[in-house]
Design a protein that fits this description.
heterodimer, A: alpha+beta, 7-stranded antiparallel beta sheet, 15% strand, B: mainly alpha, two-stranded antiparallel ribbon, 21 helices, 8 strands
C-alpha cells in the first residue's frame, strides 16, 4: 500500500562518489577521491624507533610476569584478615588490595603490550574488502522457493487439512503440561495473606505485645509520648513461648506480625476510630508498608509522620495512618489493643484489614 | 562445498596435497582434514575490521561477560545457595553469634576466609556493572549512528534482549547473598507481583514456595541466575557475534569508503592483537577497581529480616529507573466487587518493560517511515538524523529523570532538598523534560548541519587577516580538501513522503488509510522543511568558489 509512494523519495546513495574514478573528481568537488595514500609512522621508517617500541612492548610483558609472581607471593604471605590503612582508600583488606592490584597490573600490561605492538609495529595500512549483498540473487530465490514448494507438496501438509489442524491443536496444547508441572512450586494462597499471628488472639485469650528488643511484655507507661517501639506477638495457644527467632517460620511470621507502637497525647489524635482502637493514646500499627511491604522505620515525633525508607510512603499516625505522601495506596492497618488483668498491653484479636502490600483478592 | 568432490575422492589414493613444510603446517593439515579449518580461515583470517574508538564499546560488553562467567564459576565453588539457618561463627566479629542463612554465611566466608574470595566477588560484581553500562553505551552508539538499519534489525533485537536479560540476571545476582539490602529488593519484587490482577497472589505463592520469604527463593534464584539466564544469554551472544561477522562491520563515511566495501585493518595480526589485548586491558582495570573500590559490602548491611531495613535502600543503578517509576507513582488503588487493583504498583510494573521496548522497536518504526529497503553500512553522523538523535536523547533524559526519582532520598540528603519536592519534580519532569530535550537536541543537530554546510561552501576559517589593496580587511577562508568535502556531503537525505493525490487518474476519489496518513505525517516530521538542512550541492559550491576567485 505504501511502497508506491515512497521509492522515488529515497535519496540517491552516493550519487557523487560511488565507484567513479578521477573523471568524477574533476567535475564534482564532492566526489569520493578514493583511499588516501598510506602515511608511514615513525616506527615504519626509523629502525631505532622501531627497536625502542619493541623494547617497550617487552618491558610491559616483563612487568606482567613480575606482577603475577607478586600475586602468588601475596597469596601465600598475606593473612586474609589483615587490615591496612592506605591513603586515600582508608582501612582496607591488605590481601584484597595486593591480589587485586597485582592481578590488575599483570592483565593490564599484557593488554597494553599487545595494543602497543599492534599500534607501533604491525602494519597500519588500511585495506578495502568488498561487501556482498545479504540478499540472495533472484535465481537462487526462485530456486529455493521451488524446492520448498516441492517439499511442501510432497508432505501433503496443505492438502491434508485434518492432519494439519490436529497437529496445530496438539502443538498448542502440549505446553500446558509444562505449565501444570509448575503447580507444585508452592501452596495455594487461600486466605493466608488475610491473617497474621495476631488472629490467634480472642477477647478471652488475648496475646501480649512483646518488645522486639527486650523480649519483655509492655505496659502503657513503658512507652513514652513521642517514642516509637517495635513489638511482636507474645505467648499464645499455638506458640506457648511467643514468636521466637529460633522458630522455623520466624521470617514468614515476622513479615506480617511486626508492630509499630507509638504514644500520642489523646487530644492530638485526629481520628476517633483510631483512638478507640488504642489504649490511653498508645496506638499499634502494622510495621509493614502497604505499598510493597518494606518495614517502616522512620518516625517524626513532632508531626507523628512515619516514613518508609524504601519508597518514601508517608503515613500520619495521628490520623489513622492515612497516606499523606508517596506511592502507598491505603493506610497502615491498626491493631486493637487493651490491657489485661496485670496491666500489660494485649491484643484481643487480629488486624481489621490484611497487612502488607495490596493483592487482587484483598477485599477490605 | 563438498557435493562435487565426493566422486573425485574415490579415485585418488590419498590426499593429493604436497608434503607440509613443517610440523605446524602438518598439524594444521590434520585439523583441516577433520574440521575444514582452511575454508573457514580463508574468509576470516584476514577479515577487515574498520577502526574507530566507538567500535570497542561492544568489545567491552563481550569481555566483561567473559569475566563474569569466569568469576561466577569460581564463586559457585564456595557459595551455598541455601536459606537454611545457621549461627554465624566466622572471622567477622560484629556478626558473631547472629542467626543467618547459609547463603549469607557463605558470602561472608567468601569475603573473609577464602583467600582472594573477596577479590573475585568484587570482580564479579564490578564486571556486571561494567557489562550493563557498556551494553547501554554500545546500544546508544548503534542507535545514534543508525547502525541498526537493514540488514541489522534482528541483531538490534538480539542486543536488546541481552540488555534486558542482563538487567534481570543482575537483579537475581545481588539477591543471592540474602543480606538486608537484597532481601528488601526481593520484598519489593513480591509486592510488585502481588499487584498483578487475578493471578498475582498465585504467582507469588508459587515463586516463593508459600508465603514471603519462605526458604525456597535463594536456591531457585541461584539456578536461574547461574544456569537459565546465562545459558540464554550465551546463545544470544553467539548469534549476535555470528551476525556481526556475517554482516561485516559498519564504517564511517570517508574517502574510499562506500556502501559496497569495508575499509580497515585485517583480523590477523592487527585486530587480533588490539582486540585480544583489549580483553586484558578491560580485565586488568576491573581487577584494579575491585582492589580499591568496595561494591556491595553485605557484611555492613547484615542478614535479612523482613521487619528490618536500612535507609537509602537502593538497587544497582540500572534498576534505578524502575525504582524511580515505583517511587514517584501516586498511590492509586481501586477497590470494587471484593477485589483490589493496585494501580500504584501495577502501572510502574507495566511501564518498566515499555520504556525499554520503546527503543527495541525503533528500527522497525523508522524503516516503515522511510520505506527504505536498501542495505546500509555507512554510519550516519548523529547530527544528520536530527529527529532520531533527538528521540534518543529524549529517551535518555526520561531514563535519567526516573533514575533521579529512584535516588530521591540520596539527592535529598546530599543536596539538602525536600524529598517531596524531588518526587513532584520527577512526576512532572517525566513528561516535560523529554519533550524539552527533544526540541533542544533537534535544534542543536540542525545548527551543526548548518555549520557543516557553511564549512563546505565557504571553507575553513584560517585565522589569517588579509588587507586588500583598497583597504578592506578580510579573513582568509581555506578550501577544505576533497576528502573532507566528500565526508561532509556524502550523507543521505530523505524527502518526506507525500500523500497520493485525492483522486486517481480517472478522477475517482482515492481511499487513503489511516496508516498511510500517519506515515506521511511522521515522514514530514522527520524529513520535512525545517527538520533537516538541505545539504550543499556541487553547483552551489562551484558558484561560490568561482565567485570568490580563489580555490
Amino acid at each position: 500500500m505504501s511502497h508506491d509512494m515512497s521509492d522515488d523519495k529515497l535519496p540517491q546513495a552516493h550519487a557523487a562518489g560511488e565507484g567513479h574514478g578521477e573523471a568524477a573528481v574533476a567535475d564534482n568537488p564532492f566526489a569520493d577521491p578514493g583511499l588516501p595514500p598510506h602515511e608511514p609512522r615513525r616506527t615504519d621508517i626509523d629502525e631505532r624507533a622501531a627497536k625502542r617500541a619493541e623494547r617497550q612492548v617487552s618491558l610491559l610483558f616483563i612487568v606482567s610476569m613480575l606482577a603475577t609472581v607478586g600475586f602468588i607471593a601475596s597469596y601465600v604471605s598475606i593473612d586474609a584478615d589483615r587490615i591496612v590503612y592506605i591513603f586515600p582508600l582508608g582501612h582496607i583488606s591488605a590481601l584484597n588490595f595486593a591480589l587485586g592490584m597485582t592481578l590488575g597490573v599483570a592483565l593490564f600490561c599484557i593488554g597494553a603490550g599487545a595494543v602497543h605492538w599492534a599500534r607501533t609495529l604491525m602494519s597500519d595500512v588500511e585495506l578495502p574488502a568488498e561487501r556482498h549483498a545479504i540478499e540472495a540473487d533472484d535465481e537462487t530465490r526462485a530456486d529455493v522457493i521451488e524446492q520448498f514448494k516441492t517439499g511442501a507438496a510432497e508432505s501433503g501438509f496443505g492438502r491434508r487439512k485434518m492432519i494439519r489442524n490436529t497437529l496445530i491443536g496438539s502443538m498448542a496444547l502440549v505446553p500446558l503440561s509444562g505449565v501444570m508441572l509448575l503447580r507444585d512450586l508452592g501452596p495455594l494462597p487461600e486466605k493466608k495473606l488475610d491473617v497474621t499471628g495476631w488472629n490467634e488472639a480472642t477477647p478471652n485469650a488475648p496475646i501480649r505485645l512483646v518488645n522486639m528488643n527486650t523480649n519483655e511484655p509492655m505496659k502503657a507507661e513503658d512507652i513514652a509520648v513521642g517514642s516509637l517501639t517495635f513489638a511482636k506477638p507474645g505467648p499464645s495457644a499455638l506458640r506457648p513461648a511467643g514468636l521466637q527467632e529460633s522458630d522455623e517460620d520466624f521470617q514468614e511470621a515476622i513479615a506480617k506480625d511486626a508492630l509499630m507502637l507509638i504514644r500520642i497525647q489523646p487530644n492530638d489524635i485526629k481520628d476517633a476510630d483510631s483512638a478507640a482502637l488504642g489504649f490511653e493514646g498508645v496506638l499499634a500499627y502494622s510495621k509493614i508498608c502497604t505499598h510493597v511491604g518494606c518495614p517502616i522505620s522512620l518516625y517524626e515525633q513532632q508531626t507523628h509522620h512515619a516514613l518508609c525508607p524504601c519508597h518514601q510512603s508517608t503515613f500520619d499516625l495521628s490520623d489513622g495512618a492515612r497516606v499523606i505522601f508517596g506511592p502507598a495506596g491505603h493506610p497502615l492497618p491498626q491493631l486493637k489493643i487493651v490491657t489485661d488483668a496485670s496491666g500489660y498491653l494485649v491484643a484481643p484479636g487480629g488486624f481489621e484489614h490484611p497487612v502488607g502490600p495490596s493483592f487482587w483478592e484483598r477485599s477490605e | 562445498m563438498s557435493s562435487a568432490s565426493t566422486s573425485a575422492k574415490q579415485a585418488a589414493p590419498a590426499s593429493t596435497r604436497d608434503k607440509p613444510a613443517n610440523k605446524a603446517e602438518a598439524a594444521a593439515d590434520w585439523v583441516d582434514g577433520r574440521l575444514g579449518i582452511y575454508s573457514l580461515a580463508k574468509a576470516n583470517l584476514r577479515k577487515i575490521f574498520p577502526d574507530h574508538w566507538s567500535f570497542m564499546l561492544g568489545e567491552i560488553c563481550l569481555y566483561s561477560f567473559i569475566i563474569i562467567i569466569l568469576t561466577g564459576v569460581y564463586l559457585t565453588l564456595f557459595f551455598k545457595p541455601s536459606m537454611g539457618e545457621v549461627i554465624y561463627n566466622g572471622s567477622y566479629s560484629p556478626l558473631d553469634g547472629i542467626r543467618v542463612s547459609e547463603a549469607y554465611a557463605s558470602t561472608l566466608n567468601i569475603s573473609f576466609e577464602v583467600r582472594g574470595g573477596l577479590l573475585i566477588r568484587q570482580i564479579h560484581h564490578w564486571a556486571a556493572i561494567v557489562f550493563v553500562a557498556a551494553m547501554f553505551v554500545h546500544m546508544m552508539r548503534v542507535f545514534f549512528t543508525g547502525a541498526f538499519r537493514k540488514p541489522r534489525e534482528i541483531n538490534w533485537l538480539f542486543g536488546f534482549l541481552l540488555l534486558f536479560l542482563g538487567f534481570f540476571d543482575g537483579f537475581l545476582g545481588y539477591s543471592l547473598p540474602d543480606d538486608l539490602l537484597s532481601g528488601t529488593g526481593i520484598r519489593f519484587m513480591e509486592g510488585a507481583i502481588l499487584a498483578v490482577p487475578l493471578v498475582g497472589t498465585y504467582i507469588s505463592f508459587f515463586l516463593f514456595g508459600g508465603e514471603f520469604p519462605g526458604t525456597d527463593i535463594v536456591p531457585r534464584f541461584f539456578t536461574i541466575h547461574v544456569l537459565l539466564i546465562p545459558g540464554i544469554m550465551l546463545g544470544l551472544l553467539v548469534a549476535h557475534l555470528i551476525l556481526v561477522f556475517y554482516h561485516k562491520h559498519t564504517q564511517w563515511a570517508g574517502p574510499g569508503k562506500t556502501e559496497k566495501n569495508v575499509v580497515g585493518m585485517p583480523l590477523m595480526p592487527v585486530y587480533m592483537a588490539k582486540a585480544g589485548g583489549f580483553f586484558f586491558l578491560v580485565f586488568g582495570i576491573i581487577a584494579a577497581m575491585s582492589a580499591i573500590a568496595s561494591v556491595n559490602p553485605v557484611w555492613a548491611y547484615g542478614p535479612y529480616r523482613p521487619d528490618q531495613v536500612s535507609t537509602d535502600a537502593q538497587p544497582d543503578w540500572y534498576m534505578g529507573f524502575a525504582e524511580g517509576l515505583i517511587r514517584v507513582m501516586p498511590g492509586w488503588e481501586i477497590r470494587a466487587w471484593g477485589h483490589t487493583l493496585n494501580l500504584g504498583v501495577f502501572i510502574p510494573l507495566m511501564l518498566f518493560p515499555l520504556v525499554l521496548a520503546a527503543i527495541a522497536v525503533y528500527p522497525f518504526i523508522e524503516g516503515w517511515i522511510t520505506g527504505d529497503k536498501r542495505e546500509h553500512h555507512i554510519l550516519d553522523r548523529p547530527r544528520n538524523a536530527p529527529v532520531r538523535t533527538a528521540l534518543g536523547a529524549a529517551w535518555i533524559s526520561l531514563y535519567l529523570v526516573l533514575l533521579s526519582g529512584g535516588g530521591n532520598d540520596l539527592i535529598a540528603t546530599h543536596f539538602h532538598l525536600s524529598l517531596n519536592d524531588i518526587t513532584y519534580f520527577v512526576r512532572i519532569g517525566s513528561f516535560v523534560v523529554p519533550v524539552v530535550v527533544f526540541f533542544v537536541t533537534k535544534r542543536w543537530c540542525l545548527g551543526l548541519q548548518r555549520r557543516d554546510k557553511e564549512k563546505v561552501l565557504h571553507g575553513r576559517e584560517t585565522g589569517v587577516i588579509k588587507r586588500l589593496p583598497h583597504g578592506e580587511f578580510i579573513e582568509v577562508h581555506a578550501q577544505l580538501p576533497q576528502g573532507t568535502l566528500h565526508t561532509l556531503t556524502s550523507h543521505e537525505q530523505y524527502e518526506p513522503v507525500e500523500l497520493p493525490a485525492e483522486v486517481d487518474e480517472n478522477g475517482v476519489a482515492r481511499k487513503v488509510g489511516l496508516a498511510t496518513k500517519t506515515r506521511a505525517k511522521l515522514s514530514e516530521g522527520y524529513f520535512g522543511e525545517g527538520n533537516q538542512i538541505p545539504k550543499p550541492t556541487p553547483e552551489e559550491h562551484k558558484e561560490i568558489t568561482s565567485g570568490h576567485g580563489h580555490h
